[in-house]
Specification:
With 163 residues, the protein is of the alpha/beta class. The protein is built from five helices and five strands, in the order αβαβαββαβα. The protein has helices at residues 25-32, 53-70, 91-106, 124-130, 150-162, and strands spanning 37-40, 75-79, 111-113, 118-119, 148-149. The longest helix is centred in the middle third of the chain and has 18 residues, at 53-70.
Amino acid sequence: MAKRHLKVTGDLGRVIFMEWDMRNTASIEESVRHSDIVYNLVGRDYPTKNFDLEDVNVESAERIAEAVAKYDIDRFVHVSSYNADKNSPSAFFRTKGQAEEVVRSIFPETTLVRPAPAFGFEDKLLHKLAGAANVLTSNHMRERFWPVHVSKRTRHVVDREID
C-alpha cells in the first residue's frame, strides 16, 4: 500500500508504454498517433556524450510537435522552464526558450508550462541547499526563489488540462 501513489492511473488501453528514440521520427509518430493529449516532458539541464542541449531541448521538442501536428492531436502540453528565454546567456534557458518558439510555430495551440524549481524526495534542489558548496554564492546569499513540491506541480499540470 505504501507504493500506491506510484500507480499509473487510466482505463485499460488508455495508458500504453512505448519505447521511442528522439532521433527516430517514426518512433515518435508511433508514440503519439492514437493520443488525445501529448505531454512533452523531455529535457535536460546538462549535455551528455550523446546529446547536447540543442538536441534534447530544441530538436526533440520540434520532432514531437511535428508528430502532434501531423496526427492532429487535440492537446499538446510542452513543459519548459521557469526562466526560458531565447536570448538568455545560459545555454539551458536559451534552448528552452528556442524550443517554446519552435513548438508554437509548428502547433500554435500548444500549452506552455513554465514550472518553478521543485523539491521532493531525493531531488537536486534539496541536495544543493544541504551541500557544503552552498556556503558561497555569487550574489552574497541574496538569491531567492520559491520552490514548489513536485506533487503539487504535477497535480497542477494535469488538472489544468482536464478542465
